[in-house]
Design a protein that fits this description.
Elements (H helix, E strand, L loop, with lengths): L9 E6 L3 H11 L2 H8 L6 E5 L15 E2 L10 H11 L6 H21 L13 E9 L4 E7 L5 H15 L3 E4 L1 E8 L6 E8 L4 E12 L20 H8 L4 E2 L4 E8 L9 H4 L3 E3 L7 H4 L9 H13 L17 E4 L5 H7 L1 H11 L8 E10 L3 E2 L5 E6 L2 E10 L4 E2 L11 H19 L18 H29 L8 H16 L5 H20 L12 H25 L17 H4 L1 E5 L5 E5 L13
Parallel strand pairs: 1-2, 1-9, 2-6, 9-17, 15-18
Antiparallel strand pairs: 3-5, 4-5, 7-8, 8-9, 10-19, 11-14, 12-13, 13-14, 16-17, 19-20
Bound molecules: flavin-adenine dinucleotide.
Length: 622
């Protein structure tokens, strides 16, 4: 679906059509301000741009559940959810944001139910809930069933329900358009629009907008072993960096403990919630040793590090499909789960294991290893979704620019996200950002329009520069093809291969643990080998339409920008906290680092104090 024409000026442009982008669109159209404009016959112009058909967004792969203290199965309280979120995030969480998350979660889940999400049910018809790592009752006393679920297809349910509501509300989509630039005014105080490449035709569009929202998802593709789909290349974060903005806490990348060996595909935490147990080569259920009480359902960073300690100590098992025979996996033992129950509540997990490992979880042990899963850091936003820069010790918001979902950092996950909290973050803060944009619709008619020829049009300029770049890249493809025909050896590298090489570099630098040396080696490798290759990439076909190599080239360049920022921020944090474990600084250091890193494209880093309200930092034991 493409818009019939590109408007001269949009009221709102949303980049991304996962849970965050779609929630924002609905939050806006269901607002009183929107209804008011409509009643006056002034239909606001809204466009959702997505590089994928919306139903392919990664939200659709979420399996396990969405957290909310509904208390449908066991007594629960939002204060406990709030506490778990702060503690799970190793106290790098902004407590005003986490309080909101926990307090408003039940209403957000009920809202999803009203949108049409078909949750699994309890016997008496309530939304069913299951255990998830790090979620507890009575402030850490015992585990609690808090994750609302739909078998193991919660993301699929949410994505389809939200999309259908958007279609019903008449929202315009520009599908398979790739946003290449975010355009701000010169002082970086106000948004002006975006530049988008229509992959169907190869046309580059200047999209002027009074409000822009980035909802482009995470960046797991920075790492070779990842649970993330191919599109999660951190575009929105790189767009912000390249527009002169900062990223917050970008050094925190969550490794999920149970990636299916050799593929990295996620086996949901629900597998352990339903009774699955991790075992080392000696058959020991080792998590009891690392996190007594919580064992296999301790927070993800704790479990991933425990797996790494076991494999480093020689108690790992080899993935039968790894030709090198590395013993870098452990077993996931699901044999204790009743087979009928397993098929009923974990159908996707069972199907994934059958399809990709040719094993039967009812009788076989499954090789697993930590897989890059969730980007905790991102574009800094307030609880109303406004993007800001951290300068001179204060937040300076960028007028009209918003972000939500995995590409953003409202700082509810801190240094380590709890399972079930990210769909909640995307839906809840996405909706809030949509409402914030709606509140800005009122004054829109008074704002200056595009087309004033005395003012330099930065969106048009950026689009013109992209058109030139596209033409140059396509011309290079033609020359390259002719040269390749003469000499096989001159064939240039391809972006997918370079992405894989970058993934290997980042994995050896930062996966699960790191040190000054591993970071330095990666920086050098990127500067001397990867970045120059990326700069000389060109597509191998000179066709502008459906030329996927063109977008892959931009994606790999975005990954390099983002990976470099991640390495800088990891280097600057001389402590271990949550998902970032520095072997050379193994202790948490609240005296110096109870602060959010704010990293820019040049590697400059500022520190923003963590917003502590009523929970002073404590030691974290699981
Ligand atoms: C396998 C898996 C299982 C998960 N399970 C759970 C779970 O059980 N519970 C939970 O809470 N969380 C889970 N998560 C995390 C959660 O699903 C995500 O954090 C969340 O869905 C992200 O939503 P989003 O809207 O921010 O991004 P996405 O759903 O990733 O959507 C990103 C959108 O941005 C668009 N886009 C990106 N770049 C561009 C560009 N340059 N131009 C135009 N469009 C662009 C894409 O087309 C897409 O529409 C899981 C994640 C994975 C990978």
């Amino acid at each position: 679906m493409s818009p019939k024409h590109v408007e001269a000026m949009y009221d709102v442009v949303i980049v991304g059509a996962g849970a965050a982008g779609l929630s924002a669109a609905l939050g806006m159209v269901h607002s009183p301000e929107f209804a008011e404009r409509r009643a006056l016959g002034e239909e606001p112009s809204v466009l959702v741009i997505s590089k994928l058909q919306p139903l392919r967004s990664h939200t659709g792969s979420a399996e396990g559940g969405i957290a909310a203290s509904l208390g449908n199965v066991e007594h629960d309280d939002w204060h406990w959810h709030y506490y778990d979120t702060v503690k799970g995030g190793d106290w790098l969480v902004d407590q005003d944001a986490a309080r909101l998350l926990a307090q408003e979660a039940p209403a957000a889940v009920i809202n999803l139910e009203r949108m049409g999400v078909a949750f699994s049910r309890t016997e008496d018809g309530h939304i069913a809930q299951r255990r998830f790592g790090g979620h507890t009752a009575d402030f850490g006393q015992q585990p609690v069933k808090r994750a609302a679920y739909a078998a193991d297809r919660i993301g699929h349910q949410i994505l389809h329900a939200l999309w259908q509501q958007c279609v019903a509300a008449g929202i315009a989509f520009a599908e398979e358009w790739y946003v290449t630039d975010l355009v701000l005014d010169e002082a970086r105080t106000k948004v002006e629009g975006v530049v988008a490449f229509d992959t169907h035709t190869g046309a580059v569009h200047a999209v002027h907008a009074r409000n822009v929202m980035l909802a482009t998802g995470g960046a797991g593709r920075l790492f070779h072993t990842t649970s993330n789909s191919w599109d999660l290349t951190g575009d929105g974060m790189a767009l912000a960096l390249n527009a002169g903005l900062q990223l917050e806490d970008v050094e925190f990348m969550q490794f999920h403990p149970t990636g299916l060996a050799h593929t990295g595909i996620l086996l949901s935490e629900a597998a352990r919630a339903e009774g699955g147990v991790l075992r080392n080569a000696e058959g020991e259920a080792f998590m009891q040793r690392y996190a007594p009480g919580h064992a296999d359902l301790a927070a993800r960073d704790v479990v991933s590090r425990a797996i790494r300690s076991e494999t480093d100590a020689g108690r790992g098992v080899a993935d039968p499909k790894d030709p090198a025979g590395r013993r870098d996996c452990v077993w996931l033992d699901m044999r204790g789960i009743d087979a009928d129950h397993m098929n009923e509540v974990l159908p996707e997990v069972v199907a994934t294991i059958r399809k990709y490992a040719n094993l039967d979880p009812a009788v076989d042990l499954i090789p697993v290893k930590p897989t890059a899963h969730y980007t905790m850091g991102g574009i800094p936003v307030t609880v109303d979704g406004e993007v800001y820069r951290w300068a001179d010790g204060r937040r300076a918001t960028v007028e009209g620019l918003f972000a939500a979902g995995e590409c953003s950092c409202v700082s509810v996950h801190g240094a380590n996200r709890l399972g079930g909290n990210s769909l909640l973050d995307a839906c809840l803060f996405g909706t809030r950002a949509g409402r914030s944009m709606a509140a800005r619709l009122e004054g829109a008619a008074a704002a200056p329009d595009a087309g004033d020829e005395t003012v330099q049009d930065r969106v048009d300029d950026a689009a013109a520069a992209r058109r030139t770049q596209v033409a140059d890249l396509l011309a290079a493809a033609k020359v390259g093809a002719d040269a390749d025909a003469d000499d096989e050896d001159t064939a240039d590298g391809n972006p997918y291969q370079l992405m894989a090489e970058l993934g290997a570099v980042m994995e050896s630098a930062l996966a699960v643990h790191c040190s000054e040396d591993t970071i330095a080696a990666a920086r050098e490798d990127i500067a001397e080998r990867i970045a120059p290759q990326a700069a000389s990439l060109h597509p191998h076909s000179d066709t502008p339409a459906f030329n996927q190599e063109l977008t892959a080239i931009w994606e790999v360049r975005h990954l390099i920008d983002l990976g470099s920022a991640m390495l800088e921020a990891s280097d600057a944090r001389h402590e271990s906290r949550g998902s970032l474990y520095r072997m050379d600084f193994p202790a948490r250091d609240d005296g110096r680092f109870l602060a959010h890193s704010m990293t820019d494209a040049e590697g400059g880093i500022g520190w923003q104090p963590v917003h502590i309200e009523d929970m002073p930092p404590q030691a974290r034991s699981y």
